[in-house]
Every structure is written in structure tokens, then in C-alpha cells.
Amino acid sequence: LDVSMDTWNFISTCLVSLWLHRSYIYSAVAFGITVWIVIQFTTTRTKRKITEQVRTENKLVNGYATLQAKEVCVAGVKIFYGSQTGTAKRFAKGLAEAVVFLNLPVEVISMGDYDPDDRLLEETTSRNVCVFLVATYTDGQPAESAAWFCKWLEEAANDFRFGKSFLKGLRYAVFGLGNSVYVDHYNTVGRNTDRWLWMLGARRIMTRAEGDCNVAQSKHGSIEADFEAWKAKFLSRLQGLCRGEKKPCSGKCRKGKCKSSGKQSKESSDHEHGTSQYENTKTEELFETTSEEEADAEEAGGTNSVIDVEDLGSIMSHMKKAKVLLLRLMLNFVYQLVCFVYQLLQVKISCLFFGLFPGYKLIGSHSGVKLCRWTKSMLRGRGGCYKHTFYGIESHRCMEATPSLACANKCVFCWRHHTNPVGTEWQWKMDQPERILQEAIENHQSMIKQFKGVSGVKADRFEEAMTAKHCALSLVGEPIMYPEINRFVKLLHQHSISSFLVTNAQFPDEIRNLEPVTQLYVSVDASTKESLKRIDRPLFKDFWQRFLDSLKALSEKQQRTVYRLTLVKAWNVDELKAYADLIALGKPDFIEVKGVTYCGESSASNLTMANVPWHEEVVRFVQELADLIPNYEIACEHEHSNCLLIAHKKFKINGEWFTWIDYDRFQELVREHERSGGSTTFTAADYTARTPHWALFGSRERGFDPLDVRYQRKNKARDISGC
């Protein structure tokens, strides 16, 4: 007995010691992984150089160099500037005068007068060279005239719907203006502009340069001298492009040979071979050359070279699949380890999540808000989302938010690539709903304010957008997991904000206990146990019973209810009869059927564009499904979102559809319900409104509001739809 007690004491002492020193253990593991990654990068880079030499020889033999020479001819130069004090503008005019002497057309453009959403894509086929002279202003922010341009560029670079080759074909150079006295923000805007353009597939013609207003630190004694030195190199490079030179820079910026030789083709290869956007972004930040000064230092004979950002994409794309998989697994292990420690300490998990998704605004420990792209679209009179067509919401007044980042599913088509936490129960420090709503509104208004003065934004809609009227609780995660969801919904209604809540049908008790919302959605991503497990990948072992119980709970609701079907080609489009049975079980008021939105490549999913159904295929599926459910008919269509609405016939009154919502009437009804302590009830039929003709299925407009003007992208037809 004594021996066993001694053994137990020894084991318990070891375990306690390990727990007390866990931070050192985590650090050791992270350090080991870092060393492994560095070794892999070094060895792979060596192999890659040998491979590239062989490829270069083959290309020359096959006449590839001749074809490349034809591609690099220059049609003209466009010089974009963002200036607060006028320095960048002065530099732009000076550069333009120098370009004129090369007999090239040149245009000087203020970023404040240029709409990148409309026009930047044109530069991918124009054969122009685009120069960006951008100044860093207070706290690392761009000048006021460049704020919208930079904001658009950042969001596009981090939006999977644009893709990593969106600006493929655009050639550019960046010169940043800053002051090294402000160490934390020195030339931030120039560096960001360079990175975002590269992430979108644009091609550098030379290394980014940085001018320094601090004469004590300026490489050439002043920012003017820095610019003149860069200008001379740029003009030399431009002349080389005009002569048809293949190499993308001067030829002596990396240890006596061109650091970028063949680089542009490698960057293109990166995008074509599908290196993930997250990997590109993060690894570039680690290895990116910060300025031309580093290049010159190496040219002078330095021995410690910096891994260049353009080389990194090639390294990642040429790794063997096994090594890439192992790397991802190890990185994921570190991430999960950190998440575990954070959850044990009950601190903010959201800092881990939001760092991966620029554009999201953090609220407390577990909530967030983001500006929907349809909000931006409607601000500019370019049409609203499908909820505007189906239910009459004002998209520019809709706030997209969530009180819970966590989710109980890991769906194959998840927009967030499963970077949000998952769980089957609430296990994080809880913030009060009052705080969540207040900060959500404040952050939403802050994001709306960024559109003040932006080209195309309608003044009346901008003013309206400052007061949110709708809240889509569908940003990410499972909102109904939040323990105070009822209080949060009541607060929304007290602020006259309608509530559109989406749940993944894994929490039947919470659905039953939910207070009235404007419209309650349940995601029905499959109709059989096997396909649901394959598509949603739920965490609950009894997921199918929970799914069925959730649909039964939905049938008991008196307010508006919706099934949301996401069609994934070759996964769930052949189960019509089973879908009809589920509709009979849950008795929803409406059924939204939408083609899946491709979210880009991810190690967490093997979906491709081949899994995205054409709109005609979605229409055919809906027509066949409607034939199997006699109490329903096809009511509305939003072609732009690849989405249709099936509605219960009780919403068709005297031959007219009433799928829209009378939001003022709903607010009156919900206030009466709360004042009566829940004794006064109301139904979906009590707050309907007539659906306009343009929103109906079969209309000429196909769901596009005729009050707006549909914008068609030029040159490249890219589908970045979604909501």
C-alpha cells in the first residue's frame, strides 16, 4: 500500500509540475516546429532553384522567351497618388514629365477620383504599367483621398470571392512616402498597398521603394532624393520593358543577379496551383522585403539574404503534398493548443479568430460584426441582396453580426474555412447582450462612415444606413448557442431592428425556447442522415435526431420560418423526395434554395467550382421540388445570388404574393407581446406585405430592383456572388 501511495504521489507531483510549467512546454513545441519549418524552406528553396534553371533552359529551347517578349510591351503609364500635404502629387507630376520623354502615354490620377471597383480590373488587359505613390498619414492610415482605394484593395485581397488571380495581368510599382520618426507606422500604407496588389495576382515590375521625410535616416538625405533615386531605376526598368526584356527588374538586386528572374511566372504559378490565401498572406508578412534598402545592402555584398516574398509562393507551391499536409497539421496543432489554453483561462478566443479575417470587428470575447458586400452595393445604387428581393429589407440598413463565433458543425462549404472555434456547448466567458448590441451598432456605424464621399455612394442612402433597421444573425458560428440569445433579440426589437436568425438545426431545445424573431431560419443542407454527416460534418453523435427534433420545433413556431437549402452539385441535389418529407415535417413558411458559393481552396474541404450549380440547374431543382409539395409554389427569384424562394400558398392572397414583411407592424406586434408577458401572440400572417412584380419568379428583372442600376464587371467575367 505504501509503495502504491508513493507511486501515486510521484505521478501526481509530475502532473502538477507539468501543468505549472505548461507555458514552457508549449514554447518548446512551438520553437521546434519553427526550426522544422525553416529547415524545410531552406532545403526546398535550393531544390527550387535547380528546377527553375532547368525550366528556363526548356523555355528558351521552345521559343518561350520570344512569346514573353511580346507580352511585356508597354501601352502607357498610369500614376496613382494618395497625398495629404501634396508631396505625393508633386512626385507624380514629376514622374509623369519624365515618362513623357520616353514617348509613352501617361496619366496622373488621384486615388480619391478613381473607383477601383469599377476600373482597376481594366488594367489587367490594358498593358499599362501602374505606379502607386502613397503616403502614410496619422497612425499608419492612408491620406483621406486614398482611404477608399486602400479600403477596397484590402477587402478585395481578403475576400475569397475575388480570388488570387483577380488582378492577374496588372503590372505595378509602389513608392511609399513616410517618416521613420513614427517607427510603428513607418510607410505602412505603401507596404500594405504592395502586399494587397500582390495577393490579388498583380505583378511587380520592381521592388517597392520607400522615401523617408526624416533626413537623419533617409538613405539619400531627403525624401526628394529618395524619390529621384527610385525614379531613375523605375525609368530604366520601364525602358527595359519597352524593349521587351523578359526579366522583371534591373537584374542586380539580389547578390549580383536578378532576385525576380522568373518570379512573375512563379507568382502566377502560385495562383494557378491554388496556394491558399491565408498561407500567402501570413507567409508574405514573415518574409517580405520591407524596402529597397535591404536589396541594396545585399547587392553591396551582404551575406545574410532575406527570403523574398515572391519566392515564398513558389516554395509553397512546389513543396511535396505530404510536406504541405504535415506543415498544416503542425500549425493546426499549435493553433488548437493555444485555443485550449485560452479557453481554460476563459479569456478572449476571438483575437485568434479575427486575426484571420480582416474586416471583422471584434466585440467582447465571442461576438463580431462585419459589413456585408450587399450593404456596400446598395449604398451605391447597385442593387440589394436576395433578402431585399424576397422580404423587402433595405440592404444598406442591414447589420450582419453574431453573438457566438462557435459552431457545432464543420460544413464543407463553410465561408470561414473552419477557423472559428467549434463546440457542442457554451464554454467561454460570456459578455452581456447590452454590451454586444451597443458595440455592434457602434462598429457598424464606424464602417458605414468610411463610405462618406466615396464615388457613387448615394447621399440619402448613406444617411439612412447610419441607423440600422435589420440584423442578420448569420455572420458566422451558431447564434442560438449564446445563453442570452433571447435578451439579445429583445434588445434588437427595442431598438426597432428586425431579427433574421439562422441556426444549423442542432439545438432543438433552444429553438423551442426562442422568443419571437422576425424570421427564423434553419439550414437544411441535406435530406438523409448519410449526406448530412458528409456535408455538415456535425460534432454531435446524435446529430440526426437533433436535426429532426429541430425541424419539429420549428413547426411549432407561429412567426415566419424558413428552410435554407444550399445545393452542392454531386453532393445533395438528387434527394428530392427526402427533401419533400423534411418539408412536411417542419412545415416552414418559406424555402430558400441557393446554389453553393465557392469559397476558394481549403485543406478543410475538397469542393471545387465544379460543385457550384448553374442558375438554370437551381431553377430546375426548385421546379421539381415544388411539384412534390402541393401546398407550396415558387414565388421569387434573385438571379444574381443564384437563389429562389418557394412559399406556402397561404401567402398568396387573391392571386398576389405577400412574401414581403411589414416591419413597422412587426415591431408593434412584438411590443404588444412583451407588454402582455407573452400572453398576446401573433402569427406570420399578421405582418405580411405585398411582393412587388419585379421580385416575382418569371419577371423580366429576375429579382433585380429596377430602382437600382446593375453593375457588370468589364473584361473578366467573375462570379463573386454570395450573401
TrEMBL record:
Record domain Flavodoxin-like: where: 77-235
Keyword 4Fe-4S: yes
Keywords associated with the record: 4Fe-4S, Iron, Iron-sulfur, Lyase, Membrane, Metal-binding, Nucleotide-binding, S-adenosyl-L-methionine, Transmembrane, Transmembrane helix, tRNA processing
Ranges where the record places region Disordered: 246-301
Enzyme class: lyase
Entry keyword annotation includes Ubl conjugation: no
A Pfam short name: Radical_SAM
PROSITE patterns, sorted: FLAVODOXIN_LIKE, RADICAL_SAM
PANTHER family, sorted: S-ADENOSYL-L-METHIONINE-DEPENDENT TRNA 4-DEMETHYLWYOSINE SYNTHASE, S-ADENOSYL-L-METHIONINE-DEPENDENT TRNA 4-DEMETHYLWYOSINE SYNTHASE TYW1-RELATED
Function according to Swiss-Prot or TrEMBL: Probable component of the wybutosine biosynthesis pathway. Wybutosine is a hyper modified guanosine with a tricyclic base found at the 3'-position adjacent to the anticodon of eukaryotic phenylalanine tRNA. Catalyzes the condensation of N-methylguanine with 2 carbon atoms from pyruvate to form the tricyclic 4-demethylwyosine, an intermediate in wybutosine biosynthesis.
Protein name: S-adenosyl-L-methionine-dependent tRNA 4-demethylwyosine synthase TYW1
Organism encoding this protein: Bucorvus abyssinicus (Northern ground-hornbill)
